[in-house]
């Protein structure tokens, strides 16, 4: 399993980073974990072909985590994509994507496409859904987004990648991280507590509970970015590639 942080930033592009978009490649297949509004630009900048993406796993329905989906779908339409696209997400995913596409490009949902887009809504209780080599699970976390927010897990080929999404500390993160080769976790601030988000001081206090091979910080705001040298855990940057088999 190869994990690439195509985008490692927060909602506001702090530090010049793209919004959340993490590529997971395993057994010849490609999935994205989150697809923020800047994701298509980030993929183009890094030489990643959007047409290779067979699945997208969405942690929650804020624009910096799923707002790139309308562009990914329309890109497939204009590049004559024929391969199916599966979108995993929380309850409400189907309606929110439809609304987003009609808001950005009115009439776009009524156009007949050459490829099917399948929406799979995760139960938020760890139930397993599958697409090709990917096994996908999600657990509800503490983040208001107008729909359940999830920590997610993608497993394939004997390896696993977990992601916190945006959330205050919750035991669900322990479950999502358990046995993962890599667990990417929000560290939005250094020590300032912001509702529905995780600060690094709190994460550091609980890091021993996260039984993953490697904990990687992501979704960092300006105050966290300013103190990265003080952090005890590595931080993602746009373009960072990790090979789960080598960790």
Written description of the protein model:
There is one protein chain. The chain is α/β, with parallel strands linked by helices and 247 residues long. It has one domain: 4-Layer Sandwich (Metallo-beta-lactamase, Chain A). The protein is 20% helix and 28% strand. The protein is built from seven helices and 13 strands. The chain has a seven-stranded mixed sheet with strand order 6-5-4-3-2-1-13. The model has no long low-confidence stretch (mean pLDDT 97).
Biggest beta-sheet profile: 7 strands, mixed
Helix residue percentage: 10-25%
Based on the structure given, which CATH architecture is correct?
Answer: 4-Layer Sandwich
CATH topology: Metallo-beta-lactamase, Chain A
N-to-C SSE string, H for helix and E for strand: EEEHEHHEHEEEEEHEHEHE
Strand content: 25-35%
Per DSSP, the total helix count is: 7
Rg calc: 17 Å
Highest-level CATH class: Alpha Beta
Coarse shape: globular
In whole angstroms, the N-to-C terminal distance is 11 Å
Assigned CATH superfamily: Ribonuclease Z/Hydroxyacylglutathione hydrolase-like
How many separate domains? Answer: 1
Number of strands: 13
Average of the residue pLDDT scores: 97
Largest beta sheet: strand ordering: 6-5-4-3-2-1-13
Helix/strand class: alpha/beta
Which residues form runs of ≥5 with pLDDT under 50? none
What distinguishing features does this structure have?
single chain; 247 residues; alpha/beta; Metallo-beta-lactamase, Chain A; 7-stranded mixed sheet; 6-stranded mixed sheet; 7 helices; 13 strands; globular
């Amino acid at each position: 399993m190869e994990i690439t942080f195509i985008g490692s930033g927060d909602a506001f592009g702090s530090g010049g980073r793209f919004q959340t978009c993490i590529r997971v490649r395993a057994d010849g297949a490609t999935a994205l974990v989150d697809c923020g509004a800047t994701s298509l630009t980030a993929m183009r900048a890094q030489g990643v072909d959007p047409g290779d993406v067979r699945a997208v796993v969405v942690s929650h329905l804020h624009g910096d985590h799923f707002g790139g989906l309308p562009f990914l779908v329309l890109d497939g339409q204009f590049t004559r994509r024929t391969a199916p696209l599966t979108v995993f997400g929380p309850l409400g995913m189907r309606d929110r994507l439809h609304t987003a596409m009609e808001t950005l490009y009115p009439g776009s949902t009524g156009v007949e496409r050459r490829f099917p887009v399948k929406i799979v809504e995760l139960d938020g209780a760890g139930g397993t859904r599958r697409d090709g080599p990917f096994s996908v699970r999600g657990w509800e976390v503490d983040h208001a987004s107008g729909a359940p927010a999830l920590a997610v897990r993608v497993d394939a080929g004997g390896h696993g990648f977990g992601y916190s999404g945006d959330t205050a500390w919750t035991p669900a993160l322990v479950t999502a991280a358990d046995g993962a080769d890599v667990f990417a976790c929000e560290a939005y601030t250094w020590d300032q507590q912001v509702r529905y988000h995780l600060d690094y001081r709190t994460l550091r206090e609980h890091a021993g509970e996260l039984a993953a091979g490697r904990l990687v910080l992501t979704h960092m705001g300006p105050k966290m970015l300013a103190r990265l040298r003080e952090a005890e855990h590595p931080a993602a940057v746009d373009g960072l590639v990790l090979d789960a088999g080598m960790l």
